[in-house]
Amino acid sequence: MEVKISTKEKFTVVTPITPAINDNLAEQINTACLNCLNSTIKNVIVNLQAVTAIDETAAKTLANLQQQFYENSASFVLCEIKPQLENIFDKYELLDLLNITPTESEAWDIVQIEEIERELMDGEE
C-alpha cells in the first residue's frame, strides 16, 4: 500500500507516500477512507505533503470523498497541499468543493470544530 494510515482519538490521517496520485493510488485512498467512514472513528484527514501531481480522475475521487463524508456527518479535510497541486484542483474546478488547510494541526482543529457543530445540531433536533 502506498499510503500511511495513522488513527487518532477523533480522526484518521491518511498520508500518500508517493509524489503522484494516479487512479490506482486514488482507489487505495478511497478504500482506506471509506473503511474509516464505516468505523467508530469516521473523520479523515488526508495529508498531501509528499504529493506534487494528481490526475483528474484521482482529484475527482477526493472531491467525491469529501461529499460522501459530509453526507454521513463526518469530516474530510485535505492538508499540506503544495501550490502546484492546488492549481490542479483549481484547473478541474474542484478547489471550492474541498476543505483544505495549510497544516495537519489546522486540519485537526477543523475536525474538532465540526464535531462540536454536529453535536450542537443533534441537540437542537
Provide tags for this entry:
single chain, 125 residues, alpha/beta, 49% helix
State the secondary-structure class: alpha/beta
- Count of DSSP H/I helices: 4
The CATH architecture classification is 2-Layer Sandwich
* Overall pLDDT confidence: 94
CATH topology: Transcription Regulator spoIIAA
Multimeric state of these chains? single chain
Largest pleated sheet: 5 strands, mixed
Stretches where pLDDT is under 50 for at least 5 consecutive residues are: none
For the terminal residues, how far apart are their CA atoms? 42 Å
CATH class call: Alpha Beta
Number of domain units = 1
| Secondary-structure element series | EEEHEEHEHEH
In terms of DSSP E residues, the strand content is 15-25%
Q: Using only CA atoms, what is the Rg? A: 14 Å
Task: List strands and helices in order, with pairings.
Elements: E1 3-7, E2 11-16, E3 20-21, H1 23-37, E4 43-47, E5 53-54, H2 56-71, E6 76-79, H3 83-91, E7 100-101, H4 104-124
Parallel strand pairs: 2-4, 3-5, 4-6, 6-7
Antiparallel strand pairs: 1-2
Helix pairs in contact: 1-2
Describe the structure.
The chain is of the alpha/beta class. It has a single domain, classed as Transcription Regulator spoIIAA, CATH 3.30.750.24. Helix content is 49%, strand content 21%. A 5-stranded mixed β-sheet has the order 1-2-4-6-7. A two-stranded parallel ribbon has the order 3-5. A hairpin with a 3-residue loop joins strand 1 and strand 2. Helix 1 packs parallel to helix 2. The termini are far apart. The mean pLDDT is 94.
